[in-house]
UniProtKB/TrEMBL annotation:
Pfam families: Methyltransf_28. It comes from Nitrosococcus halophilus (strain Nc4). Keywords: Methyltransferase, Transferase. The keyword Secreted does not apply. It comes from the Bacteria. One of its GO terms (biological process) is methylation. This is SAM-dependent methyltransferase. The keyword Cell inner membrane does not apply. InterPro entries: NDUFAF7, NDUFAF7_sf, SAM-dependent_MTases_sf. GO terms for molecular function: protein-arginine omega-N symmetric methyltransferase activity.
């Protein structure tokens, strides 16, 4: 998610209703801390702040996407994103003969609507289009978007509360992994600590303690090898996302999991110069690094370690079938020719389209920071989206 600016000036104050909402969640997290002897892992804090039913950032009726919200995603920026993606979906559906599409956390529903419209035009609709969405408020918005934009295709779409037992087709995860709860750690010389959250006075505070998880210990051992020498280094590890890949792999009979997110291969993620990690918060289009304030009102994200995703897929029997930047993927899927056709048809102003393309592809915008990873089962031919440049060797 792209938040336009890092602001040094103070964040806007929440209105009284939002503040009351946040305080309610704050007292629930505080209770959790008390029940756990005065501290909880940051992963637990992030889980409650984002996903506590009715109160967490993703689970309440607050406006998150678009101009009035906290951030904007690629499908919201331009229909060209989903139209390019549809070409990769079409290739996989053709290879499989038929299949379904399952989208995780579909935001406003824009991507689903644009994708279905384009697949319909190409005569390659999936058998069904599932959306796995935890937020009731976003489900409603998705239903409205589909009814408004593609009413004839809306019956194809159904909503799920959990993963189906068997998946045949495509699983799409656009900006899903970055919002999964992460464990934070800090390294000081030869000591490795986990960063916990406590409560003092009337605010949440960072604490440190022993590593809570064997897999965290293993990962930190690997990270230390990348860092050579350490005097102080903070970062995070996303174990939840590795479990999630394993869960999907377990259910994917045949098809592809396509992950779109911002992040790096491991050696770039845990670079010696990136000493404070990648944790970032988004509140009303301002980006700042303090996850312990405004619980329930701000998004909390961390960049994605794509090497960890590739390993999790590989260890679960999936093939790592492609990895590249968003720019290379969109260009390989025909961004230039789709944009030219749009401009020729006069449906859009050329300027508007050129601005959309810039935001999707420029290295200073989303083009280089966002990566696409394909994990497949039972699909061998080279994938369209990675035909221009494939960076699997960088993983």
């Amino acid at each position: 998610m792209i938040s336009p600016h890092h602001h040094k000036d103070p964040l806007p104050l929440p209105n009284p209703a939002a503040l009351a909402h946040s305080q309610k969640l704050q007292s629930i997290i505080r209770e959790d801390i008390e029940q756990n002897g005065g501290q909880i892992s940051f992963a637990r804090f992030m889980e409650l702040a984002l996903y506590k039913p009715g109160l967490g950032y993703y689970m309440s009726g607050l406006h998150k996407l678009g101009a009035a919200g906290d951030f904007i995603t690629a499908p919201e920026l331009s229909p060209l994103f989903a139209r390019c993606l549809s070409r990769q979906c079409q290739q996989v559906l053709e290879l499989l003969g038929s299949g379904e599409i399952l989208e995780f956390g579909a935001g406003s529903g824009r991507m689903a609507a644009d994708l279905l419209a384009e697949l319909d035009r190409r005569g390659q609709l999936p058998e069904r289009y599932f959306i796995l969405e935890l937020s009731a408020e976003l489900r409603q918005r998705q239903q409205q978007t589909l009814q408004q934009q593609v009413p004839h295709l809306a019956p194809k779409v159904s909503w799920l509360d959990r993963l189906p037992d068997n998946i045949q087709g495509l699983v799409l995860a656009n900006e899903v992994c970055d919002a999964m709860p992460v464990h934070c750690f800090q390294l000081e010389d030869e000591h490795s600590w986990e960063r916990y959250v406590g409560y003092e006075g009337d605010s949440f505070v960072w604490k440190k303690g022993p590593l809570s998880h064997a897999r965290l210990k293993e990962r930190i051992t690997e990270i230390r090898l990348l860092l050579k020498q350490v005097n102080r280094y903070e970062s995070e590890v996303n174990l939840a996302m590795e479990n999630w890949v394993a869960e999907i792999a377990h259910r994917l009979q045949q098809g592809m999991l396509l992950i779109i997110d911002y992040g790096f291969p491991r050696q770039e993620y845990y670079h010696p110069d990136r000493t404070t990690g990648t944790l970032m918060c988004h509140y009303r289009h301002r980006a700042h690094p303090d996850p312990l304030i405004l619980p329930g009102l701000q998004d909390i994200t961390a960049h994605v370690d794509f090497t960890a995703l590739a390993e999790a897929g590989h260890n679960s029997g999936l093939r790592v079938a492609g990895y590249c930047s968003q720019t290379d993927f969109l260009l390989a899927c025909g961004l230039d020719e789709l944009a030219a056709a749009e401009i020729a048809a006069g449906g859009y102003h050329a300027l508007e389209i050129s601005n959309q393309i810039k935001r999707l592809t420029l290295p200073s915008e989303m083009g280089e920071l966002f990566k696409i990873l394909a994990l497949t089962r039972g699909i061998d031919p080279p994938l369209l989206g990675f035909s221009l440049r494939d960076r699997r060797t960088r993983l």
